[in-house]
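User: Is it possible to get a 3D structure for a protein together with its bound compound? The compound here is 2-oxoglutaric acid. I've pasted both below.
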Amino acid sequence: MPASLSSSQIASYRNDGFVFPVDVMSPSEARVLRSRIEDLEQTYPDGSLPQPISQYFRVGAHVVIPLMAEIARTPAVLDAVESILGPDLLVWSSELFIKEPNTRKIVSWHQDLTYWGMGETDDQLTAWIALSPATPQSGCMKFVAGSHNNRIVEHRDTFHEDNLLSRGQEIAVDVDEATATNIVLEPGQMSLHHGRMFHASGPNGSDDRRIGCAIRYVTPRVKQLVAERDYAMLVRGCDSERNWINVAAPSEPFGDGAMALYSRIRSDQSVALAQGARQQVGLYADAATGDSVS
Ligand SMILES: O=C(O)CCC(=O)C(=O)O
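Assistant: Yes, that's possible. Here is the predicted structure of the complex:
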């Protein structure tokens, strides 16, 4: 495995706002991770945890699921992220984007940083690791090269039931689909994208699940500007700025201490993530009380 990005891959990221495909593990290693995720789904059916496992998969999964913290620390992933963001790295969030076979779920055109309360920073990126084939048929991501050079543009919330985003948010101006690049990835490959990248993904029309693991990295320089406090897990180097409450990786799935911390994080982050929303933001609904989400 390459230890870090080549100079041309770094230049691609700087020019386009993304780089792909980056090999970070073998297809068989990706298959093992996928089956460990699917084992978790079997072990924790709905009703066995305070919220459905899909909720934990979509918000701060590394706080309660050791496997997600392990994926976020994959050396080849960190080496590549370090090539862009430098030696000090924290994980702000980790998520699984799962689209079931032949379903309509999509992700509308958006910029990640819109509701994260971190301003328009260049010090945040997402590593999206494919654990099944990501193709136009299975609903791979699409990126508009150079769109990270925009500021955060206006978004409108749709709350559409087929939209996987927390508020179904979408960019309020037309995005020219013809200019987008399909981010085709084999299992074990990843893409990196900038937090202001215009991106989206279509439905999964394939017969397999489309599974992507999105890890949100920040440097210690990034600050939470909307919520009173925010949390991140140091994964490389040191955090000399202390802008984040540092959290440790969990030692067991859904342990009591980690679950209490998870509720606090979700509640604190909901201040930024749900700011200005006209209706409940499903992934953050009832975060303050820790009740079930709809
Ligand atoms: O998995 C997808 O289709 C979209 C993921 C996404 O928007 C992101 O990781 O920022």
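Confidence is low (pLDDT under 50) at residues 288-294. The two ends are 42 Å apart (CA to CA).
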